[in-house]
Amino acid sequence: MSETQREYAANYRRPPVHTRFQKGRSGNPRGRPAQNLPALLAAALNEKVTVTENGERRQITKREAVIAQLVDRSAAAELRATKMLIDMLRDIERRGEPPAAAKSPFSPTDKEVVQQLIARLRRNMCNGCPWAARRCGPDGRADGLDAETTGQTPSAP
User: Using one digit for the tens of pLDDT, what is the confidence trace for 8-38?
Assistant: First the structure.
């Protein structure tokens, strides 16, 4: 075999020349991808550490350890820890609050229609029921229940 053929022969552990890394160029031109600060902080806080509590060893995340230390120091009347804890609680409460009570989607007219529907259903349920005779008046209306929705006075029992 000639010298040029041996140079360009693609064999085991000898890839073709055109696919090899060129001299002076990196194999990873963009470099390692940089992580942003929140991602780095989350990764560091989610690492596990071994803690001994009451003579028992257990693994918890660094996030849990930091919170436990903050609460312990706050309980020991350390003012800075107490202020940090109160600020964290306020922030959590502010985020967790439901939005302001939304205005009722039903108008007064809608409420009146619903009340009339309920009254009609009660009348239909009362007709023909033996136990309803005691509960309903002679016209089939429930005593006092429909009077407020229809505007009529309730029938006498």
Answer: 677 888 888 888 888 888 778 888 888 899 9
- The structure tokens listed for 152 are 């009529």
Does this model's pTM top 0.85? My answer is: no
Rounded to the nearest 10 degrees, the angle between the axes of helix 62-75 and helix 79-96 is 120
Task: Provide φ and ψ at 106, rounded to 5°.
Answer: -100, 130
Number of neighbouring beta carbons within 10 Å of residue 9 = 11
User: Would you give the end-to-end CA distance of the chain in angstroms?
Assistant: 120
Residue 49 sits in the same domain as residue 80: yes
Give the pLDDT confidence score for residue 1 in this predicted structure.
54
Q: Residue 125 domain-assigned?
A: yes
Residue type, 56: E
Query: How much is the average pLDDT of 125-152?
Result: 54
If pLDDT is split at 50, 70 and 90, which confidence band does 136 have? low
Q: Write the burial class of residue 146 (CB in 10 Å: 0-12 exposed, 13-18 middle, 19+ buried).
A: buried
Number of structural domains the chain divides into = 2
**Domain identity same for 78 and 113:** no
For residue 49, give both structure tokens: 């550490």
Question: Residue 135: which domain range?
Answer: 108-150
Strand segments, DSSP code E, in 41-92 are 48-53, 56-61
